[in-house]
């Protein structure tokens, strides 16, 4: 197992804030919109640097999505910022008609996704957003795993033409990917090469997969860990190549097991190479209030549960 | 000026012929609101807008128009064709398979003149505001126009946009409401009252004008007045009084023709009332 260490923990949303500032410096057409959550989205640095390119929309997310769509006409690259719940479910039809169907170059940037939002509870903990967004034709869906990757992804999507959903979160977590990395949309990242099982993880579950990999190594299990930061378009080649080698799969995501990364991989495998698969995901339920780590444990989204899922799926291998 | 009005009225009559023929040939679509807004569209595209029929999505240096109540697509398609954006013959493909003229306007099929999909109501004012903000950022001193149904004002997003535009001094925006008092299920007063629209928009901080939308002379006068009041710190709202189905006596003023196609006899009766010097497609 390749060794991953970290010296610092930060929230992925801060990676977004840093990436937005950098994207703004690189391209004068980058503009930012926010629905009364500037602090939560870490947009202050961008606003300070480019006050004339920031638009405070107020608590009106539908209006924000429409304004963003309109701003693309004339060449702006709008980044919208609010919580994941208000970035997707609340404004699904606005995104569907004015952005996705209309093919507008809007970057929907969503913080506080999933259970790790914590104490605010299930009203704010969306676990359906990846599914909602990946079903929209033409929408790119990205869920980053640490501060550095989120910063790199934010810069990369500004350079990509087309609608993007970028999902990140609230808690501080280890920074284990490289600073100044080049983020390639749709290109899976090999975290650890292995031969016994393929663990495909996204977002906050990537670090948990690394912790699980270390425990598995001690048990003599050689896990391949791949970070699927881009859920759509899925890096099919990387997934199929890995599965051809390992013959069994665990998917890990902070999302409902219905409609997320696990389902995308299951669909690919069902068509090309039917393979035993276990899901690390929320079992079709809402979340609840609590500390993020406690919630992740209760809902089965941590390293311990990944280890159990690996044992289970390896026993199913033919 | 008088000659211009006559010419515009002649075009409007032809557009009305196109509308009833388009809706008849596919036996679906929305003739009522289309006929009611015809004079506005013709005035806009043949007199008011600074625009280029060689369509370019960004429209730099051009006035932009957004249709929020997308179901009145027939009047827009006909007007665009008559203005020269594409051949009028293509109007015969309206709502048919493999057409660029979808039931509701879209950019997906790349029909020249369309900059955003609409049909799901309430979204167009936000989009128009966005385009207006970009014009300001680009130091582009042209205008953005948008059209909305009155029933559409029942959508909450409209009022989000209504609050945003004055607060942010989006004064390069001229929105219009097709104030015909009708929606699919009946008169707006019965379905869900709009109340005092003038007072509502004024309270939100808009510069409100009123216009007789089926009187070409008044349409031109008020649209020109609206232009003269742009860039003065407030977005502009025109309450456009129209009759749904205007120009065809048996369709006029009734919500029953909101989304119903005429049969062969009704088509003939409608066309007999609409005499234009232009050619049918």
Q: Features of this protein?
A:
heterodimer; A: 318 residues; alpha/beta; Rossmann fold; five-stranded mixed sheet; 38% helix; B: Rossmann fold; five-stranded parallel sheet; two-stranded antiparallel sheet; 10 helices; thiamine pyrophosphate (chain B); Transketolase (chain B); THDP-binding (chain B); Transketolase_N (chain B)
Please render the helix and strand layout as text:
The complex is a heterodimer of chains A (318) and B (281).
Chain A: E1 9-11, H1 12-26, E2 30-34, H2 44-49, E3 54-56, H3 61-71, E4 77-83, H4 84-87, H5 92-101, E5 107-111, H6 129-134, E6 140-143, H7 147-159, E7 164-167, E8 172-174, E9 189-192, E10 197-201, H8 205-218, E11 223-227, E12 230-232, H9 236-246, E13 249-256, H10 261-272, E14 277-282, H11 292-298, H12 303-315
Parallel strand pairs in A: 2-3, 2-4, 4-5, 5-7, 6-7, 10-11, 10-13, 13-14
Antiparallel strand pairs in A: 1-8, 6-12, 9-11
Helix pairs in contact in A: 1-7, 3-5, 8-12
Chain B: H1 2-26, H2 31-36, H3 38-48, E1 64-67, H4 73-83, H5 124-137, E2 144-149, H6 156-167, E3 173-179, E4 182-183, E5 186-187, H7 188-191, H8 197-204, E6 207-212, H9 216-228, E7 236-241, H10 264-272
Helix pairs in contact in B: 1-3, 1-4, 1-10, 3-4, 3-9, 5-6
Question: What does it look like?
Answer:
The complex is a heterodimer of chains A (318) and B (281). Chain A has 318 residues and is of the alpha/beta class. Chain A contains twelve helices and 14 strands. Chain A has helices spanning 12-26, 44-49, 61-71, 84-87, 92-101, 129-134, 147-159, 205-218, 236-246, 261-272, 292-298, 303-315, and strands at 9-11, 30-34, 54-56, 77-83, 107-111, 140-143, 164-167, 172-174, 189-192, 197-201, 223-227, 230-232, 249-256, 277-282. In chain A, the strands form three sheets. A seven-stranded mixed beta sheet of chain A has the order 3-2-4-5-7-6-12, with helices on both faces. The radius of gyration of chain A is 19 Å and the shape is globular. The two termini of chain A are 25 Å apart. Chain B has one domain (2-272): 3-Layer(aba) Sandwich (Rossmann fold). Chain B is built from ten helices and seven strands. In chain B, the strands form two sheets. Chain B has a five-stranded parallel beta sheet with strand order 1-2-3-7-6, with helices on both faces. Chain B starts with a helix and ends in a 9-residue tail after the last helix. Classes of the chains: A alpha/beta (318), B alpha/beta (281). Chain A binds chain B through residues 31, 52-53, 55, 57-58, 60, 62-76, 78, 93-94, 96-98, 101-104, and chain B through 57-60, 64, 66, 106-108, 115-120, 122-135, 137-138, 140, 156-157, 160-161, 163-164, 167-168. Chain B: Belongs to the transketolase family. Chain B: It holds the Pfam family Transketolase_N. Chain B: Residues 11-270 form the Transketolase N-terminal domain. Chain B: Keywords: Thiamine pyrophosphate.
